[in-house]
Design brief:
The chain has 219 residues and is mainly alpha-helical. 78% of the residues lie in helices and 0% in strands. The chain starts with a helix and ends with a helix.
């Protein structure tokens, strides 16, 4: 039995190991192309799975702290399982396919390029004294009212958003990929998605969203 477990770990090792070359390629692709927008984006799928799972857990009576913990456990297990399954299937096809699938997942889970584009858009609009355009761009990054913002306020909002989102969108995913490969970055994105969707101190989510909010803050 121990031998079988060791064999399984050895077989999975190439799928779990971070790849420096792929990381460089993924970061370059993200900066050049931005975050890919399509229906089956991994983060959109995690969000849809979260909504579906939350409904089922609440319907079963798991709407407190335990439900939030179960939500994390289910999302993390399924997400990592799907990614590992796709990597294993890709390796069975060829090493090139494995490399491409690994790289595409990594590229899809980094989000620096799009954030930089938004900030540049705001800066360009302010320099051209186009405040309506600057405010529209700021409103895509922040939730507060932008109607009364002047140029300096738009710049401050852009810098604040860049600093806030840089951690979740790039620095933390990068760190967890280096530490634990694709499973690490996938679990981090599950935590981040939970934090943004259920991590609120409202009557509905004060207990149920505790796991996502606390883990999101610690990550």
């Amino acid at each position: 039995m121990v031998g079988k477990v060791e064999g399984a770990v050895i077989a999975l090792a190439p799928l779990l190991t971070p790849d420096a070359v792929l990381l460089i390629v993924a970061v370059a692709a993200d900066l050049a192309l931005g975050d890919p927008a399509y229906r089956w984006h991994p983060i959109r799928l995690v969000g849809a799975a979260l909504t579906w799972t939350e409904r089922r857990l609440r319907a079963a009576g798991f709407d407190g702290y335990g439900g939030g913990i179960l939500l994390f456990a289910v999302l993390a297990t399924v997400s990592v399982g799907v990614v590992l399954g796709m990597l294993a299937a890709s390796r069975a096809a060829s090493e090139l396919v494995l490399w491409m699938v690994h790289g595409f997942f990594l590229y899809s889970l980094l989000a620096l390029g799009e954030l930089v584009r938004y900030v540049r858009r705001i800066e360009t609009a302010v320099r051209e004294d186009d405040l309506p355009r600057a405010r529209r761009s700021v409103s895509e990054l922040v939730g507060r009212d932008t109607a009364a913002m002047d140029g300096p306020a738009c710049r401050r909002a852009a810098v604040e958003s860049l600093s806030e989102n840089l951690t979740d969108g790039f620095v933390s995913p990068l760190f967890w990929y280096v530490v634990a490969g694709l499973p690490g970055i996938v679990v981090f994105k599950v935590v981040s998605t939970m934090d943004s969707m259920v991590g609120y101190k409202t009557p509905r989510y004060r207990r149920f969203g505790w796991c996502g909010a606390r883990r999101g803050a610690s990550a």
